[in-house]
Design brief:
Layout lengths: L15 E10 L6 H12 L9 H27 L8 H17 L4 E9 L4 H10 L2 E8 L6 H16 L6 E4 L7 H16 L7 E7 L3 H5 L4 H16 L6 E6 L12 H7 L7 E5 L8 H17 L4 E5 L6 H14 L5
Parallel strand pairs: 1-2, 1-3, 3-4, 5-6, 5-7, 7-8
Helix pairs in contact: 1-2, 6-8, 6-11, 9-10
Bound molecules: ligand L6N33NVT and fe (ii) ion (2 copies).
Keywords: Cytoplasm, Heme biosynthesis, Iron, Lyase, Metal-binding, Porphyrin biosynthesis
Pfam families: Ferrochelatase (PF00762)
Enzyme class: lyase
Length: about 350
């Protein structure tokens, strides 16, 4: 018996390769309920909060989610892209996706992006890519340094979706690129050019990484070590002495001890030590977001100047800059080897 397959059936579709960029996520809007929905999903992830569920649930639902969405919503409002009515993180991730798609179009590669928390969800995008004929998909978590709280949970979410598919695409995950020579070169050039464009000469360049509880490091998360290695390699690439660059950790959350030195405390203490001109960048972020634009570029500057600092500059993330996209394309092409 012969049967005709529908024209969009995967058997007769052209087989394509897909690249799925994965980032953290962001609320859909700055109002209380949008921020609450996003934070609830984020802070219910056991890869992010390891406190046992029975203990964490009342803390999250009765305490944190009653006050934090309001506070975070105000912070988001200060950085929101008013023209597009959109979160900068989503605007930039979308621009990165478009730019990479253009670069890989000649190779017939489909590029899309998804968020671990919020929209567009990883499941919906994986299903869309599969429907478009992607039978091989590269997952690229957009975190230069590996952490279970970011890289692993981004991949987990993709595998959760694959778990329910009868016919799965073949999947690869890209490793963290914290020491990739192209990443170091592009990051180093962005620092050199960013500093050269300033109206002052910074005495210190601070690489401020997103923090995490010290406990996670003790349990074996390599993030802390990869952050230090990125900064050392970039400093060596620039040929700068050790005292010209420093590592700090930002965005402390909750009462436990986080990785130190803390960015906020450091910025308050530096002027007392005679360091009054600084430039700060955030190499753990592939796109500028609330943690860089509000916390570092705005709040960090205010506290440094209040503590007696004279000059402060924030050097942006690589975002969708041509050099930043060269770096992402290099990583992607290497990981696609054998598929292209
Ligand atoms: C509570 C623990 C948290 C850990 C551990 C953590 C790790 C981590 N996060 C990023 C990147 C981003 N985090 C962002 C926001 C954000 N992060 C936490 C908490 C932890 N992060 C919270 C509660 C929030 C929400 C904002 C707030 O309420 O303060 C973002 C920005 C999202 C945006 O919308 O702009 C990014 C990106 C990394 C790299 C990391 C690694 C250790
Ligand atoms: Fe975070
Ligand atoms: Fe370490």
């Amino acid at each position: 018996m012969s049967r005709t397959l529908p024209p969009d059936h995967p058997f007769i579709q052209e087989q394509k390769i897909g690249v799925l960029l994965l980032n953290l996520g962001t609320p859909d809007a700055t109002d209380y309920w949008s921020v609450r929905r996003y934070l609830k999903e984020f802070l219910s992830d056991p890869r992010v909060i390891e406190t046992p569920k029975w203990l964490w649930w009342p803390i999250l639902n009765l305490a944190i989610l009653s006050v934090r969405p309001q506070k975070a919503g105000h912070a988001y409002a200060t950085i929101w892209d008013k023209e597009r009515n959109e979160s900068p993180l989503r605007v930039i991730t979308e621009a990165q996706t478009r730019a990479l798609a253009e670069r890989l179009a000649g190779d017939g590669v489909v590029v899309d992006y998804a968020m671990r928390y919020g929209n567009p969800s990883t499941r919906s995008v994986l299903e869309r890519m599969q429907a478009a004929g992607c039978q091989r998909i590269l997952l690229l978590p957009l975190y230069p340094q590996y952490s279970a709280t970011t890289t692993a949970t981004a991949n987990d979410k993709a595998f959760d979706a694959l778990k329910t598919m009868r016919w799965q695409p073949a999947v690869r995950t890209a490793p963290a690129y914290f020491e990739d020579p192209k990443y170091i070169e592009v990051l180093g050039n962005s620092i050199r050019d960013g500093v050269a464009a300033l109206p002052f000469e910074p005495e210190l360049v601070i690489t401020s990484y997103h923090g995490m509880p010290v406990d996670y490091l003790k349990k074996g998360d390599p993030y802390h070590c990869q952050c230090y290695k990125t900064t050392r390699l970039v400093r060596e690439y620039l040929g700068w002495p050790e005292e010209r660059m420093m590592v700090t950790f930002q965005s402390r959350f909750g009462p436990t001890e986080w990785l130190q030195p803390y960015t906020d405390k450091t910025l308050e203490e530096l002027p007392k030590k005679g360091i009054k001109k600084v430039a700060v960048l955030a190499p753990a972020f592939s796109a500028d977001c609330i943690e860089t634009l509000e916390e570092i570029a705005m709040a960090g500057k205010e506290s440094f100047l209040e503590a007696g600092g004279e000059d402060y500059a924030y050097i942006p993330c690589l975002n969708d800059s041509p050099a930043g996209m060269d770096m992402i394309e290099t990583v992607v092409r290497r990981e696609l080897a054998g598929w292209l």
